[in-house]
Design goal:
Ribosomal Protein S5, domain 2, 296 residues, four-stranded antiparallel sheet, alpha+beta, binds adenosine-5'-triphosphate, Alpha-Beta Plaits
Length: 296
């Protein structure tokens, strides 16, 4: 019997390391991207419909497209095409992940929609097939499916799972206005061209991987890095103030999340996280690692 509806939850992410190589001839950048999934989630419910319909509710949904450009819709279309069926589905997205915040909200919705449609249509796709569709949808989408922690190389989509020895407590500070990921990469290239220095090959930092393995927040704080941070702050100078306010409020370290503008403040423990969140407006506590896309 076909289910009436299926709901899947997928997590946001923070890049604890984002090493960006030189721009490639195809316009993409080689990355060494250490992802950590965190407990801030979107939910996607798939139910049968006449044609493809997208609806959304929740945080900042004005920025969420409700047509076929929505990443969740694209996920449903790709899966349907692969199995020769019509994408007759209503996808209802409940957003808690900030839109255009550098926390992979769209990617989470795509991974959630894919898993939900796969279950609704009983396509029985293998994990490998689902991961291949995710990689077609975007560099961050495979990680939204997998969750936990992982090293992504290539454009970020070739994943190796990483061991994490404990929980990390984060405070995310959101901005009212998002930043475009391509614009941040362009600014990074522009600043590098201006500086005239050569760009090293992106590699994962062994000390950071050891900190994750040990579950050591202080060591992770010492090794956090984001090559896009300078570009995000150049486009949005007030992010520098947010990072400084985070450290002044007691964070072990503060970093722009991915391409921004969300900022990630690493706390020593839950109590410290609660104090920091209490001191900083528009902030949200979240613990990582979190599970990838999962049926609820
Ligand atoms: P990343 O961290 O992967 O670079 P992000 O978190 O910065 O992504 P998203 O929230 O994924 O950014 O959204 C980026 C843009 O993608 C939005 O401005 C919106 O136009 C478009 N978009 C498409 N589908 C979605 C979706 N389901 N949710 C949010 N935005 C979407």
């Amino acid at each position: 019997m076909t289910a009436a509806s299926v709901t899947v939850r997928a997590p946001a992410k923070v890049n604890v390391q984002l090493a960006v190589g030189d721009v490639r001839p195809d316009g993409f950048h080689d990355l060494a991207n250490v992802f950590l999934a965190v407990g801030l989630h979107d939910e996607v419910t798939a139910s049968p419909a006449d044609g493809l319909r997208i609806t959304a509710e929740g945080r900042d949904i004005e920025g969420v497209p409700l047509d076929e450009t929505n990443l969740a819709a694209r996920a449903a279309i790709l899966l349907a095409k692969r199995y020769g069926i019509e994408p007759d589905v209503r996808l209802h997205i409940v957003k808690d992940i900030p839109v255009a915040g550098g926390m992979a909200g769209g990617s989470a919705d795509a991974a959630a929609a894919l898993v939900a449609c796969d279950a609704l249509w009983e396509t029985g796709a293998s994990r490998e097939e689902l991961l291949a569709i995710c990689a077609e949808l975007g560099s961050d989408v495979p990680f939204s499916l997998v969750g936990g922690a992982a090293l992504g190389v290539g454009r970020g989509e070739q994943l190796t799972p990483l061991e994490v020895g404990g929980s990390f407590h984060w405070v995310f500070v959101t901005s009212e206005v998002g930043l475009s990921t391509p614009a941040v990469y362009r600014e990074c290239d522009r600043l590098r061209a201006e500086g005239g220095t050569s760009v090293p090959e992106p590699v994962a930092d062994p000390a950071l991987l050891a900190a994750l393995r040990a579950g050591d927040a202080r060591e992770l704080a010492r090794t956090l890095s984001n090559d896009l941070q300078g570009a995000a702050v150049s486009l949005r100078p007030e992010l520098g103030d947010t990072l400084a306010a985070g450290v002044a409020a007691g964070a072990l370290a503060a970093i722009v999340s991915g391409s921004g503008p969300s900022c990630a403040l690493l706390a020593a423990d839950r109590a410290a996280g609660e104090r920091i969140a209490g001191a900083i407006p528009r902030s949200h506590l979240a613990v990582g690692p979190a599970r990838g896309a999962v049926l609820v």
